[in-house]
Amino acid sequence: EVQLVESGGGLVQPGGSLTLSCAASGFTFSSYEMHWVRQAPGKGLLWVSRVSDDGSTTHYADSVRGRFTVSRDNAKSTVFLQMNSLRAEDTAVYFCARPREAGNAELNYWGQGTLVTVSS
Amino acid sequence: DIQMTQSPSTLSASAGDRVTITCRASQSVSRWLAWYQQKPGRSPKLLIYKASSLGSGVPSRFSGSGSGTEFTLTISSLQPDDFATFYCQQYNTYSYTFGQGTKLEIK
Per-residue pLDDT tens for A55-85? Predict the structure, then answer.
C-alpha cells in the first residue's frame, strides 16, 4: 500500500525557516517524481514544487522560487521541502503527492498534510 | 504561467441531478488535464486524468472531456457522497496550475 506521511510543520515567525519531510513507503520511491502542493486555510490548492525521480531536476511555483528548495533522499525514501524567508501568506497545509504512474504527473497519492503557520 | 479558470465557483444541485463543471486554460494544455475531488479536512482524490481517463476506483458517473483550452467534468447522477469541492489541474508545463475550485453544494 502506498503511504506518504508528512512531518515538520509548526509555528514559525515571519522571516524564519522550516523543513518539511515526506516519508514514502509501499512503492519504489526512486522511480517517481514527487510534488508538494499547499492549501491556505479556506482556500484552494496551489502547486508548490516538483522534484524528478533522481533529484536532478526541480521546479517551483513563482511565489516560492528562490525561497523554497525541494530535495530527496532515495536511500531513505523521503522528500524534503526547505522553506526559507517565510511569509504570512505561506501559512497553509502542505501535502506531498505522487503521480499515478512513473513518468506521468497526475497526482494519485497524497499524504495527510502538515500545517505550517507563519505568525509572530 | 498557464492560468486555469473554473466555472461556476459554486454550484447548488440535488441528488440525482446531472452537473457539469468547466475548466478553461489560458493557453493549450493538449489533454494534460486532471480533475480532483476534495472533501473538508481530507486530501484531494484524483478523479480524471488525461482529460477523460477515469481514475482507479472512481465511479463511472464521473466523466471528463475536452482538449486544448476547454474541459468539462460531468457527474451524470449526483450521489450524496459527491458533494465536495472539485479542482482541475494542468500538467502540460512545469507549472502544474490548479483551477480555483468549484464547490458543489446540496440544494
Answer: 999 999 999 999 999 999 999 999 999 999 9
CB contact (8 A) between residue A61 and residue B95: yes
Fill in the amino acid letter for B18: R
HEC string of B27-45? CCCCCCEEEEEECCCCCCE
Which helix (H) or strand (E) is A25 found in, with range?
strand A18-25
The answer, for A5 touching chain B at a CB cutoff of 8 Å, is no
- pLDDT value at residue B93: 86
Is-contact A67 A89, C-beta < 8 A?
no
- Mutation target for B interface from A1, A39, A45: give the one with most B CBs within 10 A: A45
Selection from A111, A97, A91, A113 nearest residue A41 by Cα: A91
Task: Find where cell 486555510 sits.
Answer: A41
Q: Do B98 and A107 touch (CB under 8 A)?
A: no
Provide the grid cell at A108: 494519485
* A27 Cβ under 8 Å from any chain B Cβ: no
C-alpha–C-alpha distance, residues B86 and B88, integer Å: 7
User: pLDDT digit string (tens) for B23-66?
Assistant: 999 999 999 999 999 999 999 999 999 999 999 999 999 999 99
